[in-house]
Design a protein that fits this description.
- This protein is an alpha/beta fold and 463 residues long.
- It has four domains: 129 residues, 3-Layer(aba) Sandwich (Rossmann fold); 174 residues, Rossmann fold (3-Layer(aba) Sandwich); 80 residues, Helicase, Ruva Protein, domain 3; 47 residues, Homeodomain-like (Arc Repressor Mutant, subunit A, Orthogonal Bundle), CATH 1.10.10.60.
- 45% of the residues lie in helices and 13% in strands.
- The strands form five sheets. A five-stranded parallel sheet has the order 2-1-3-4-5, sandwiched between helices. The chain has a five-stranded parallel sheet with strand order 7-10-13-6-14.
- 32% of the residues are buried.
- It binds adenosine-5'-triphosphate and magnesium ion.
- Magnesium ion binds next to helix 7.
Length: 463
Amino acid sequence: MSSQLLIVDDERLIRWSLEQTLAKAGYEVSSASTGEAALAAIREDPPDLILLDLKLPDTDGLQVLRQIKELSPHLQVLIMTAYADVGTAVEAMKLGAYDYLPKPIDFENLAVTIRNALEASQLKRKVQLLSEKHLYPFHFDRIVGTSRGIREVIAVARKVARSEATTVLIQGESGTGKDLLAKAIHYESARAEEPFMEIACTAMPETLLESELFGHERGAFTDAKTQKKGLFEVAHGGTIFLDEIGDMSGGLQAKLLRILEERSFRRVGGTKDITVDVRVIAASNRDLRQAVDSGTFRKDLYYRLQVVTITLPPLRDRREDIPLLARHFLGYFSREFKKRLPHLSSEAERLLVQYEWPGNVRELRNVIERAMILEDTGDLLPGHLPPEIGGLAPSAVLPAPAFRLPETGVVLEEVEREFVRQALALTRGNQTRAARLLGLTRDELRYRVKKFGLNHKSEEDAE
Ligand SMILES: Nc1ncnc2c1ncn2[C@@H]1O[C@H](COP(=O)(O)OP(=O)(O)OP(=O)(O)O)[C@@H](O)[C@H]1O
Ligand SMILES: [Mg+2]
């Protein structure tokens, strides 16, 4: 697609010659003779680049430039003016013009300037897209759920994000969304442009964790060949997320407390106090109160951390979020797998809502991912769910030894009868759903029900 240019000049001859030249160069060109007309054209269909004469009959060109930038801050503008007026040009550049073309226009130069300006604006847009992509997934509106529990969590977290609070504790069982919430708090705070650093306190031995967090001086220990900054220094201005804080050793707990209280620390092997401005978000899936009682977690650190505590409720305590989350992940995986979005059958939905979810949202996500791999008829059925959730054994979904023909043979009609019976039992007599489970139409199922004399007391077929 060719780039669109808009020429704004009151002199007809100049408009005409520019139009001719630039159209020949492959651009889509339109023009306006007044500032007013230019702004109208931009509102109607914003071009990629504007060539703007600073001396216009109706308004001051600088004023038009200002309005253009208000309307569309990323629009590239090249200024043209007959006066060798450096002062105005400087003013225009300050207002965000890309470059300055003195009149009479040097047409050879023009092509190069336009190409550069367009490239610069594409690059800018790319960078902007990238940074949006980078930030977008972690906003509060990405946290799915309408239950009271999750709404309260988000409301508090929003306040915390905007506040000056420098320590936040997030508690909640595994898979309830602690990571997600920590990132949302960071990316919706005034610290969003600064680093978000994350570390799990379980994942490594104490001395390593210590130098990761606080950095070390050269020669602090055998492997310390160079000086290294720790996460607290790197995260300056931003947020550090200490996951599994309950697993932190006693020695490090004391150092952490010092940072929280004095905002300063020393690198391993260092003598200089380093002061940082970092928000600490700590998370734990164990009850820290209990860890304090059993003596594995410092009481003073606990009190320091729990000033702002957010507790994510387990999924089984907010069951109304389950269908929403299930559909959210169906959408996600259908995009991921480039597969048509399946319909979540009411039977499968009911099973999902009933289940206890010991692994919380993460487990639900995994269950939906698995189901999306198995389903291929456009309907997500109980048979696509794992047995513990009440779906059929996997053998019913995938051809498996359970279905091997016995050497003594079978009567096929009896197998069929048995499966029809089971499908009706599983759907409590709902023939539409039973038919779906067997890959039959409702009429085909009805025919078999009659043939096998399986007049199950059925609930009213809702669908
Ligand atoms: N409310 C939610 N909306 C959308 N996705 C969610 C929600 N809660 C959790 N998730 C997703 O579920 C998965 C698990 O969440 P997360 O990693 O944040 O849990 P966690 O509490 O940190 O678990 P752990 O204690 O095991 O570290 C992630 O893929 C996350 O994106
Ligand atoms: Mg986590």
